[in-house]
Design a protein that fits this description.
alpha+beta, two-stranded antiparallel sheet, 1 helix
Length: 54
Amino acid sequence: MRCSRIVLENWKNFASIDVPLQQRAFLVGPNASGKSNFLDVFRFLRDVAASGGI
C-alpha cells in the first residue's frame, strides 16, 4: 500500500496540516520547525500497525 497524502489534526506542534506525498519527499526547515514531529507520525503508524491497532 502506498499513501498519497497525510492529514494531521492536533499532532504535537501541528494544529492542522494536509501534505500530499510524492514518490520522494524532502523535509527542510529551521531548527524546532517540526521536521522530527512530522516523522514521528510514521513511527506512530508503524507501531500501531505492528501491534494490530490502538
